[in-house]
Amino acid sequence: MRTAYTADQIRAAEHVLMAKLPPGTLMQRAAAGLAAVCADLLGSVYGKRVVLLVGSGDNGGDALYAGERLARRGAWVGAILAGSKTHQEGLAALQGAGGRVVDRTALDRADLIVDGLVGIGATGELREPYQGLVQEANVAGGPIVAVDVPSGVDASTGHVQGMAVRARVTVTMGAYKTGLLVDPGAACAGIVELVDIGLGSYLPDPDVAALTDGDVDVLLPRPGKESDKYRRGVLGVAAGSDLYTGAAVLAVGGALRAGAGMVRYAGPAAPVAQVRAHWPEAVITQLERPSIDDVGRVQAWVLGPGLGTDDWAHELAARVLESHVPVLIDADALTLVARERSLLFRSAPVLITPHAGELARLIRVNRDDIEAARLEHTRRAAAELGVTVLLKGSTTVIAEDSRPARVNGTGTSWLATGGTGDVLSGVAGSLLAQGLSCYDAAACAAYLHGLAGRMAADGAPLAAADVATAIPAAIRAVSGDAG
Q: What does the alpha-carbon distance between residue 102 and residue 229 come to, in Å, rounded to a whole number?
């Protein structure tokens, strides 16, 4: 599992470790790792032009000492000193290796730019001269390597106010920072390389975690010899309407592909016909009235994709939410509960899967505010509503109670197309029915859905049904059975 920490958590761990080491040890470890990543990115170091953006803090020192190492390998290294003060020992080391102080015109000819302007403690909008340097670096030809976090990104939250460095690679020291895993900060970080400087045993419980293949493999339910379709989990799906028949088809497809032993679909005549045509495996109940009395026993429900928001849909949603099993609420059902939040007051678990606009309606804030602070608002919604929240988007964020938030980065921008969220609901609902908690079902579903999206797209557009079809391949991939 990839774990990430706030700036305060990192600084506290560094303080303890530094007290046990000779002065400057951590900076030299950081500089060595930074220089190695820069050298790999340059390919051949000799004769290449490296420009350092040097601020007042320790990141500036890291950059200077890394520049010294590159200069000793034959690179031309110039430092733009932007801070009110400079790490004097680092500057002396750079100049002793043949490096020099330069002005910002050097950016235009750089083969590599190293961003050491501000560190993990910086918050808010960049000030001059940093802001102007970041703007020029972003449009210069050379790739940017950020030290610890891209300047302009809040290390603890991922917030970006105004301008931020757009790095090709971010070399982060000691541990991942929360802001490198959550957008919009994650979008500025590029590839994140971790340099071990010895903090591991001094770190507290993480602020944020991201699952890996191995984590998902361990969590996924798998049938045993004694399994039958009922023991493998029965999922109810209340979705679709005369207007939106496809949502029901996609949600049921995602659920079947993710391993539910049985999927019971309940809906009106038009989507019933489509589900029956696409998924003969599903057990179907055509609803003449908004009731689930005749559906049969289920271990979890998916509620909402394509359901509509009229009185009929409201009554059906209320009946599902009166049940005593976990319920995943998505799409139109989120609109219904936003109008009447008391529907969420139930003893059984609830997982909601909104996009930013839906979450904005639920907690009554502006959508742009949610996009700017995804982690903060996901956590707020989980606490305020008493549910598990999976916020969809460029970075999927999952929050529940006081547990570490989980983030997912397996997706692809090709998933931004109609119907993929319905598939995600089916996958997560299937995992709920198979016995996973809301917290684990949400994280595993997001991971598999993103991985399936990558496989289905393979660098080209996809349709939502392609994602459902690729779910078994994603499951095989995380277990090492991709074949």
A: 70
Backbone angles phi, psi at 35, to 5 degrees: -60, -40
Are 239 and 303 spatial neighbours (Cβ–Cβ below 8 Å)?
A: yes
Distance CA 147, CA 119 (A): 8
Q: Which residues, listed in sequence order, are joined to residue 147 by a DSSP beta bridge?
A: 171
Q: Are 158 and 133 in contact, with CB atoms under 8 Å apart?
A: no
Q: What is the pLDDT of residues 27-68, one digit of tens each?
A: 999 999 999 999 999 999 999 999 999 999 999 999 999 999
64 and 50 Cβ atoms separated by less than 8 Å: no
Helix (H, G, I), strand (E, B) or coil at 189: helix
H or E stretch at 49: strand 49-54
Strands 262-267 and 327-329: unpaired
User: What is the H or E stretch that residue 112 is in?
Assistant: strand 112-116
Query: How many beta carbons lie within 10 A of that of residue 309, not counting itself?
Result: 18
Instruction: Please state, in angstroms and rounded to a whole number, the distance separating the CA atoms of residues 457 and 74.
Output: 43
Predicted TM-score (pTM) above 0.85: yes
Residue 275 and residue 248 in contact, taking contact as beta carbons nearer than 8 Å: yes
Question: Within a 10 A sphere around the Cβ of 348, how many other Cβ atoms?
Answer: 13
Q: What angle do CA 346, 348, 352 make, to 5 degrees?
A: 80
Give the integer Cα–Cα distance in Å for 32 and 93: 14
